[in-house]
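Histidine ammonia-lyase: structure tokens wanted.
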Amino acid sequence: MKLDGVSLTLRDVIKVARHKCQVELTEASKAQVIRSRDYVNKLLQDKKVVYGLTTGFGKFSDTYISNDDTKALQVNLIRSHACGVGAPLSEEVVRAIMLLRLNALSRGNSGIRLELLETITAMLNQNVIPVIPEKGSLGASGDLAPLSHFALVIMGEGEAYYEGKRMGGLEAMTLAGIKPIALEAKEGLALINGTQVMTAIGSIACWDALNLSKWADCIGALTYEALLGVRDAFDPETHELRPHKYQQVVANNLIQLTQGSKLITRQGEVRVQDAYSLRCLPQVHGASRDALAYIAEKLEIEINSVTDNPIIFADKDRVISGGNFHGQPIALSMDFMSIAMSEYANISERRVERLVNPQLNEKLPAFLVKDGGVQSGFMIAQYAAAALVSENKSLAHPASVDSIPSSANQEDHVSMGTIGARKAAQIVDNAYHVLAIELLCAAQAIDFRDPSLLGIGTSWVYNRCRQHVAQVTEDRVLSTDFATIANMMKDSNVLNELSSIINLQ
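Answer:
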């Protein structure tokens, strides 16, 4: 994959982060990086006062640093800022961080040497993965603490994973045959002053959320048939009168999925209208899909943005100190994703309740099991779904409304975007498990109906579930089943097969 700083997509991030696609810089990017570095060298020779180049950082921005001390300034910056705490970020998240930082730096507005970018490229391609603690970023002035742990390994310090083993950064670089870099003027600051940690976490979570949004329609449709739902609620005429794009998309998905079904009913055959968790599927799922489209747009802007400070404009003989490192656009998007994905889980858990509750499930056995009493069936599966939904409600409290001043009040408003991204990623994972529980309950309900009566799309969904997990005929440990189905759903290629059968959007 060629990186030019302007054309990276969420799909590209997944290819590199999750599937270890190799990367390289374009020749145009290399040329721009060299021009930018030549300009920085000229500024140093002329002893210009430039933030982070010949000054200290944060509150020390008014402290002049001589040329003799500029290298020490960069090394001290990385060591002093490596203040992360908590468990390490996952390998795929760190690979995404490395990719996004490399892509941003390849624009040639950061004033660093090409040699530094080539070192990062080699680390990514040879899978030298810095150990980056997940906590410690305020999400403004960039993700300073976590990115400093990344930069330590570039210098031959810190810790890294290589070939599945955790070891010292220098050892990992040596085993991979990569020479550590001695940072020079501006380079330490360029490595850590950016939003790449929150954006990496958010990009992977958003990709998984977009995939789950399609599964939610599929699973909701299967539940709809299990509960003998009323087809009329999906009628296009209704949704044309309220033309939100994804409300219409979801309604069409449900029509496609249930095409040919002998379980779904018409208005008045069994009842006039369904409960909201069934009837309002297009409106609720559609609203979350609208939110995800907005979030994906903001992430794709951010992954192709320069978030450094100061920014070098070599061709215009300018250096501008600004605030592109501030994570507010991503912080708000991550809080939005937390809410949108919590709603998928919320409405799914309500459908689970309808499936297992004998007062609501259209004469299905209580808790979807024969010999109720001796067998508990899916009773506690609903508990697990409810627990995850309640956890999501706590996690969905917005991080972006919080701020705390730092650096002696020089940096007096921060985004908390990285906290927001980590919370959103956890909510996405929780939502996968809630919907996995719903799929298992819906499939179990269909076993008590007749799988041959399903629609074209829902039949595929049912059969895919049963390929991985058998019907529950007597009580067993369900936790493993939940994980199996959630992992199956997380493979974004699985739904491609269904899309070849129906027009799933």
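The beta strands are 2-3, 24-25, 85-88, 129-130, 133-135, 159-162, 165-168, 311-313, 318-320. Residues 54 and 66 are 6 Å apart (CA to CA).

Cheers.
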